[in-house]
Amino acid sequence: MKINPENESLLRTKYDARNEKELPVLVRYFPKGFVVSDSNPLPVAKYLDLILYSREQIKKENVAMGKDTDADNETAPWGIVSIKAQDAAFELPMSPITIMRNALGKEHGGSGVPVNRNAYIEASNYWKDHANIA
What we know:
- The chain has 134 residues and is of the alpha+beta class.
- It has one domain.
- The termini are close together.
């Protein structure tokens, strides 16, 4: 959602972890109950951006988080790790905090990928004016 003066006061922050083993990170969002109603429903997304990780990367992260990688018997070469609904016909930059989280070691919920400065600046420039609805 685009941040503008009429909805800026609705913007919230919290520390959030996607599961109990990850380190919580600061996230920004608009509370769904404040911006969505019967008279103002969320639009249907025009596009879905699927984020895939290789099976090898998923196993590495599972091992680092202490998960049993043999228990799932998964053989697919790729796994969906996120589905982002959006209206833009191009890949939106990931949020700056996602870039930072990914740079964390795998044992903290990251993927161990170093921060790409240019991608981080691009993400910051986009997300300073946008926030998710949660």
